Amino acid sequence: MALSHPWNLTPKDAIALQNQLRSQVIQVDQIRQPRRIAGVDVGFEQSGKVTRAAIAILDFPSLQLIDQAIARIPTQFPYIPGLLSFREVPAILQAIDKLSCVPELLLCDGQGLAHPRRFGLACHLGLLTDIPSIGVAKTRLIGKHEQLPEEKGSWVPLMDRDEIIGAVLRSRSGMKPIYVSIGHRISLDSALNYVLAATTRYKLPETTRAAHHLASVDKSAVTGRPESR
DNA sequence: GCGACAG
DNA sequence: ATCTTGTCGC
């Protein structure tokens, strides 16, 4: 009988591992002006049996696509709030290996420090690859915050008790905000600047959109069904 | 015990 | 995340 996941970890083990690795996360800038920024997107196929990771590298600051890759592997871990990285990281690492160039900054689809144990997907991926990373989530996992202005670019700190764990950013006027947090080797201030610099006319940064688009195009090729626009 | 809960 | 057409609003 196959193991439920190659991490060979139970949820309790996964939580213990997060608590062990969290101290290694670097919360200050250890990044030089990046030329290649990557967007990561993970999706599921065949009723969740297959995990698909898509990654797109854009030139910065022009945001022109310069490389991309996709990886599909059997799903190895269930979705459990707080343990998302154990489900998505394996496929993402494989996709990164397929790239022809190395990204200098990763914009992850999920939380970084804005996590119960301060070790969300962005922290985990940043630590494993040693590449500066940022968590960019569409919805909140934990934390509270004040109301934020409707104007694009405004933001308010995301708090957990008396601790700043991230920022709630209005990336598009009049739209629901996104949740930005430190992943690894970057400060929250820089993270916000890069996310805004990578965002043009949509709510999500172009990196994330490019990865998402790549996945949908690739899926349509496999499905034989036209992609939607 | 009762909610909340990234993708 | 995923299953899915039309519809509301700038």
Automatic annotation (TrEMBL):
It catalyses: Endonucleolytic cleavage at apurinic or apyrimidinic sites to products with a 5'-phosphate. The record marks Y79 as: Interaction with target DNA. GO terms for molecular function: deoxyribonuclease V activity; magnesium ion binding; RNA endonuclease activity producing 5'-phosphomonoesters, hydrolytic mechanism; single-stranded RNA binding. It is found in: Cytoplasm. GO terms for cellular component: cytoplasm. Pfam families: Endonuclease_5 (PF04493). GO terms for biological process: DNA repair. Its cofactor is Mg(2+). It comes from the Bacteria. Its main location: cytoplasm. Coiled coil: none annotated. Keywords: Cytoplasm, DNA damage, DNA repair, Endonuclease, Hydrolase, Magnesium, Metal-binding, Nuclease. The keyword Phosphoprotein does not apply. Its EC number is 3.1.21.7. It is an enzyme of class 3 (hydrolase). Mg(2+) binds at D41, D109. DNA repair enzyme involved in the repair of deaminated bases. Selectively cleaves double-stranded DNA at the second phosphodiester bond 3' to a deoxyinosine leaving behind the intact lesion on the nicked DNA. Belongs to the endonuclease V family. This is Endonuclease V. It comes from Candidatus Thiodiazotropha endoloripes.
